[in-house]
């Protein structure tokens, strides 16, 4: 079945990107000013519960009869998992959940922001548009604020944990693709809209591009997102 989808770098896409950048900047500055305040734990937990309720409502919306599309809308994309992990991390302060939020949210999630593939399989379409962008932006902004605003720092233990559990999501997404004929995680084939995967295709990695992606992700997680911050980590966890 074919669907219409949001055009990349359309006025609405640009507007969302600008809004996200501005919101991120404001929240980082605000976080630095209130760092260490005694009420931050409660604020973090309330934020987490709000996100958890919204994520649950979004799941009901996508699985509602008439909206359910097994090849496009089951919760097997990375951000589908990330929104619950993020909310759980904020509610509990669990370091493992926060680490997944950091590594997945800052590096993997932005592909859906910079080169989105948003097929309008749900009705009304504006609800799908709002939900897609809200959850993807939150999954990027929260870990940036954690690090740049509140001084959270990853450890090598965090890195090893996320590196160990990430193949679990890949396996589940791959199994879902086999059962449904979908393309969760874009492991079955590249999306129909332009993305970074097109670059891998051009250099000859047409069928196993995901292997090159995994290699590059491991390099960035190690050399950019872990080592520099652990080498000069002085901020609070």
Automatic annotation (TrEMBL):
InterPro entries per record:
CHP02206_TP0381
Q: Which UniProt keywords apply?
A: Membrane, Transmembrane, Transmembrane helix
Membrane-spanning segments: 14-34, 46-64, 130-152, 209-229
Q: Which Pfam families match?
A: TMEM164
Is the keyword Transmembrane assigned to this protein? yes
User: Would you tell me the protein name for this molecule?
Assistant: Conserved hypothetical integral membrane protein TIGR02206
């Amino acid at each position: 079945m074919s669907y219409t989808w949001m055009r990349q770098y359309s006025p609405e896409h640009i507007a969302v990107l600008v809004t996200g950048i501005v919101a991120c900047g404001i929240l980082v500055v605000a976080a630095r000013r209130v760092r260490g305040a005694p009420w931050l734990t409660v604020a973090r937990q309330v934020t987490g519960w709000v996100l958890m309720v919204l994520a649950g409502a979004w799941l009901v919306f996508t699985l509602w009869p008439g909206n359910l599309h097994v090849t496009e809308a089951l919760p097997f994309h990375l951000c589908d998992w990330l929104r619950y992990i993020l909310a759980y991390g904020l509610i509990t302060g669990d370091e493992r959940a926060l680490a997944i939020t950091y590594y997945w949210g800052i590096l993997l999630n932005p592909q859906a922001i910079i080169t989105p593939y948003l097929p309008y399989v749900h009705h009304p379409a504006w609800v799908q548009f709002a939900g897609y962008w809200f959850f993807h932006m939150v999954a990027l902004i929260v870990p940036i604020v954690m690090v740049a605003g509140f001084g959270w720092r990853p450890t090598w233990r965090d890195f090893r944990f996320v590196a160990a559990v990430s193949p679990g999501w890949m396996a589940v997404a791959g199994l879902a693709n086999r059962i449904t004929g979908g393309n969760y995680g874009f492991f079955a084939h590249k999306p129909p809209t332009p993305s970074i995967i097109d670059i891998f295709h051009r250099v000859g990695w047409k069928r196993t591009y995901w292997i090159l992606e995994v290699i590059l992700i491991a390099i960035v997680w190690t050399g950019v997102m872990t080592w520099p911050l652990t080498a000069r980590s002085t901020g609070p966890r």
